[in-house]
Amino acid sequence: MKKPFLLIALILSLQVFSQSPTGYWYGAANVKLRNSYSNYLVELILEQDKNNVKGVLNYFFKNTYRSIPVRGTYNSNTRLVYISNIPVSYYGSYYNREVDCAMNFAATLRVSQVSSVLKGSFLSKPEYKYTCPEILFTLKLNTDSLKQDSVKQAIKVLKETYQVWRPSETDTIAAVRIQPRNVVNYVVSNQYKEREKVVAEELTVEADSIKVDFYDNGEIDGDSISIFYNDKLIAFNRILSTRSVHFDITLDSTKETNELTMFADNLGAIPPNTALMLVNDGKKRYEVRLTSNLEKSATIRFKKKKNPPNLPPKAGGFKQ
Q: For residue 273, how many C-alpha atoms fall within 13 Å in the half-sphere facing its CB?
């Protein structure tokens, strides 16, 4: 008689677990129109409180990353999660011009022995259904997030380690624009000498000057950095966020290579200290993800592309 009771207990426990949308959900959302697809990468962090849910909806579309606090409802009978009035980037938006559609999130919680999913769509108001068509998605539950005391803490750790974030067009407006100059800070300079420099990447650029922007690559958790250019301190104690710390840097033509080093002032709330660095030489844009800690400092080397020598005119040639 024990086996039926064990089976019933297992089913009941599964039902209790399956009725909660709490957790970290991720996946792709797609809009299909005239045989063409537009893809959104979506992650949803939810916490349930009785018939209500709250959390954060993040999505990446083209060159835009959006993070939106959300509040909604959950019907335990129908297992429907409903969140209204979410600004979703219009699928036909240009890279440098973004238009929003006000849409509602509606998804049904489905549970199997293999996985749990939120299956549903973003829906616009009836009068805009042709302009802003339905966006379908299936979001999977990351079960590791449920093993933590706090779902949000689990997400912070996940994002700090694996986040693949790109700044949107508006994020490239620098919050802090710094004029590179020698800065005196003996404490930071002495610690810099004690840490190992690790070359993360070597870039060949075409211009004599470059534009450099630093962002926090993971969870915005208070990461602070100092920047050294050719072993000289040019900025210290700069907080990383989704708004850039910007530098205009002139390469030293007397050097074969120039070095830019990210020194970690701290590790933030979640180690290590991570950053996304964007480099623009006027013709190309480079993205480099950097990681520094209290023992090692990430370094980027820059080389100026050499122009081919001017060849003399061939014998017998003529001038036009």
A: 24
Which residues constitute the domain of residue 136? 18-162
Residues 107 and 232 in one domain: no
Q: What are 191-233's pLDDT values in tens digits?
A: 899 999 999 999 999 899 999 988 877 666 678 899 999 999 9
DSSP E strand boundaries for the chain: 23-33, 36-49, 52-61, 64-75, 80-89, 100-111, 116-124, 135-142, 176-178, 196-205, 209-216, 224-229, 232-239, 245-250, 258-264, 273-280, 285-292, 296-304
Joined together, the tokens standing for residue 132 give 């802003």
Number of domains in the chain: 2
Q: Are strands 296-304 and 196-205 parallel, antiparallel or unpaired?
A: parallel
Distance in angstroms (rounded) separating the CA atoms of residues 285 and 27: 28
| DSSP code, position 6 | H
Percent of the chain at pLDDT > 90 equals: 30
Q: Is the pTM of this model over 0.85?
A: no
User: Is residue 309 domain-resident?
Assistant: no
Distance CA 168, CA 166 (A): 6
Low-confidence ranges of the chain (pLDDT < 50): 1-17, 95-96, 162-165, 169-176, 317-320
100-133 CB burial, b ≥16 within 10 A, e <16: ebebbbbbebeeeeeebbbebbbbbeeeeeeebb
Q: Assess if residue 228 is contained within a domain.
A: yes
pLDDT per position as a tens digit, 260-311: 999 998 887 777 888 888 899 988 888 888 889 989 999 999 999 887 766 5
130 inside domain: yes
